[in-house]
Amino acid sequence: MPESRIKSHPILPDTSEATLPFYWKDQQFFARPGEMLASALIANGVQIFGHHPKDNSAQGVFCANGQCSQCMVIADAVPVKSCMTPVHAGMVVHPAEGLPKLPDIPFQKKITPIPTPELVVDALIIGGGPAGLSAAIELGTLGVSTLLIDDKDRLGGKLVLQTHRFFGSSEAVYAGTRGIDIAKKLEEEVRSFQLVSVWLRSTALGIFEDQSVGVFREAEVYTLVRPKVLLVCSGAREKSLAFPGNTLPGVYGAGAFQTLVNRDLVRPCNNLFIIGGGNVGLIAGYHAIQAGINVVGLVEAAVQCGGYKVHLDKLVRSGVDVRTSHTVTAALGSEHVEKVIVAEVDKHFDPIPGTEREVPCDTVLVAVGLDPVNEFIAKANLVGLPVFSAGDAHEIAEASAAIFSGKITGNRAAKFLYKNDHPIPDEWERVEEILKSKPGKTISESVVSATKGVFPVMHCSQEIPCNPCSTVCPRDLILVDESDIRHLPRFLDEEGRDCIACARCVAVCPGLAISLVDFRKSSQVALVSLPFEMPETSLIIGQSVEVSDTDGALLACLPVVGTRKVPGYRNGTTVVTLEAPADIATRIAGMRLIHPTPAQQFDEADSNPEVLSDDAYICRCERVKAGEIRQLIHSGVRDINQIKAVTKASMGACGGKTCLSMIKRMYQSEGILLSEVTETPSRPVFIEMPISILAHCANDEKVGE
User: Fold this and answer.
1) I need a labelling partner for 235 at 20 to 30 A (CA). Which of 157, 407, 479, 625 fits?
2) Which residue in 248, 34, 113, 7 sits closest to 703, CA to CA?
């Protein structure tokens, strides 16, 4: 099996070697220290982790976030979620084939339980992502005793997956800084407070009637935490999509893909197809290109992509085929994705017969939206535990908004605890609203006709919250309205204050949407400088590259005459200078990074397969198809508990985290209001855990799993 590790990345250093030996089906592999088992297996070429006991279908990674159970394997004779289990030297791993055989454990005739450890704190924060970290900083600053828990092995949440520079406000939320670096800044500040404790690899299992929170800690310790106030900053989980083949290995959630590529430097595929044109899908597509993965296409069911246009522009400039009003109707393959069938959709989002196309690919990335992880909020309200929420757990928005949301929520929690008598500034609320706002209107890009001097050209044409270019210009020549940073930037071409061609604006722009055009040597030929965030070895001086305009239209093939790093922006961004004729110089917005191949064309299918949506799986754990659930809905069932009793949907290892939202959407698609539907109750425990931990035996012998 070939190793699939990323050895050359423009942003992320390859800092550790795979030195930990472990065994998969008696074959020795090697993992990096601290690497999760799922990532280590995929890095060693393993994509199929087992087969489902119900229908023997192949199972692989889907979420890589502990939310589903598709990546289950048997490690050292115990069934585990491989995406949440670190490799240790000598670990013996086997596929989860059928129902696992439980290990033989000597029966303990006498069990002496000891009291469960308890901890009293002023504030408990669930989630160490941007919102949780920001809230912890505020509470630490205000002297509030705080415990921050997160189920991962590092702080930062989705920030640790974000290699791009952030939009938003440079002053308020680190705009212009990469997500991975923002995570480090926030963590450093959190750990500077003595009153703020951090528990990693620690999961909130349940919230109970006595207002305690059960926490399963890394060292297999179960602790009851008794907070005076709870802050839920648990983020969001990805929505799934129902289509035949949606559980094949090779169908990933976007977060899983970014986890493998950006956190673990593992290349899970060669040819990627993306479903969803929101920011998550668009950003993941560009991350794939940076990792050397061919993005063969992207479809969005709506008439236009919902993400920032600058993210879309990066893909189309790079050569990615993006189709709106299209969807995937099936993923095909025997035990792994081999191709997808895409079709155009009508205004009701129904596939139009006769428009089907086959697209060869080995991986499908599903990025069709997020659902808040809000079960902790509902349970806290039920038992009367004072609770606040921030970030995606409160409202789905960008990570920059989550940072500011955490700041406000931390202050609100402190105020509740009477530690802070100062009112929250109205300005904070206004900034939060701006950061949370959806993309505004798009203004047609006007062609700059100047042929003298040197000046930046802004290729961003959509109103979004962003101001880094204006904050880095040493001569204050770029203006973004400070009262509302959603307004487009303007270059101030003022007499006596000339641009000095420092290229800071080119290097800092999160959308890679600024070029620098230099006519100082000639009015006929210009030097055009562009941001480049691919491996430096992929571009050399003298090489000719294809350049395109903002919308991806090819303009010319031009020579590279220089490359440079901008002081302060050396981590990953290279400014590449090309020589261009004057008539196209100001239109050049990017370089073509992907070149069309047969695998990228939406070729006519040899046949038009009949695809039935009833064949799509809704419940991954129990292998319940849409047709089974739809039949119950048509028969008049309006209680999800009845669906659960008949089909076992939501009774699997994930506890309904994936399928329940899809069942609700099925009701809505049938024209049934959710107010008419009885939901199934959410009960602790929120995740699986060994019974031996709850038993808490004094003799350290496990009672059973």
Assistant:
1) 625
2) 113
Q: Which of 314, 336, 366 is the last residue of a domain?
A: 366
Return the ∠ at Cα 64 (arms to 94 and 290), rounded to 5°: 115
What number of residues does the chain have? 705
Query: Considering the domain boundaries, does residue 601 fall inside one?
Result: no
DSSP 541: T
Residue 120 corresponds to which amino acid? V
Domain finish residue from 366, 385, 403: 366
Using alpha carbons, select from 229, 223, 281 the residue that is nearest to residue 255.
Answer: 281
Q: Which positions ≥6 away from 372 have C-beta within 8 Å?
A: 236, 392, 393, 394, 395, 396
Tell how many helices (H) and how many strands (E) occur in the chain.
17, 36
Please check the confidence at residue 293 and state whether its pLDDT lies above 50. yes
Question: What pLDDT is recorded for position 160?
Answer: 95
- Helix (H) / strand (E) containing 579: strand 574-581
Tokens of 19: 């030195």
- Report the distance separating Cα 86 and Cα 91, nearest Å: 10
Within this chain, do residues 475 and 579 fall inside the same structural domain, yes or no? yes
Q: Does residue 248 sit in the same domain as residue 221?
A: no
pLDDT at position 497, please?
A: 82
Q: pLDDT-derived band of residue 649, with 50, 70 and 90 as boundaries?
A: very high
What is the span of the domain harbouring residue 651? 618-705
The reply to whether 598 falls in a domain is no
- Same domain, residue pair 501 and 579: yes
Same domain, 150 and 54: no
- Give per-residue pLDDT as tens, 474-528: 999 999 998 999 999 999 987 678 899 999 999 999 999 999 999 999 999 999 9
184 CB neighbour count, 10 Å cutoff = 16
Examine the domain organization and report whether 122 and 93 are in the same domain: no
Q: Are residues 459 and 573 in the same domain?
A: yes
Question: How many whole angstroms separate alpha carbon 87 and alpha carbon 141?
Answer: 37
Number of domains making up the chain: 4
Residues 6 or more apart whose Cβ sits within 8 Å of residue 303: 324, 325
Do 257 and 288 contact (CB within 8 A), yes or no?
yes
- Whether residue 354 contacts residue 338, with contact meaning beta carbons closer than 8 Å, is answered with no
Residue 259 domain-assigned (yes or no): yes
CA R_g for the chain = 26
Could you tell me where the DSSP H helices lie in 146-196? 170-173, 179-190
pTM of the model: 0.92
Q: What's the first-to-final CA gap in the chain, in angstroms? A: 33
Angstrom distances, CA of residue 608 to CA of 329, 352, 357, 600: 12, 12, 8, 19
**Burial bucket for residue 58 (CB in 10 Å: 0-12, 13-18, 19+):** buried
Helix (H, G, I), strand (E, B) or coil at 109: coil
168 DSSP 8-state letter:
B
Are 462 and 580 within one domain?
A: yes
Which phi and psi (to 5°) does residue 457 adopt?
Answer: -120, 120
User: Same domain, yes or no, for 270 and 304?
Assistant: yes
Rounded-to-integer distance, Cα 686 and Cα 80, Å: 16
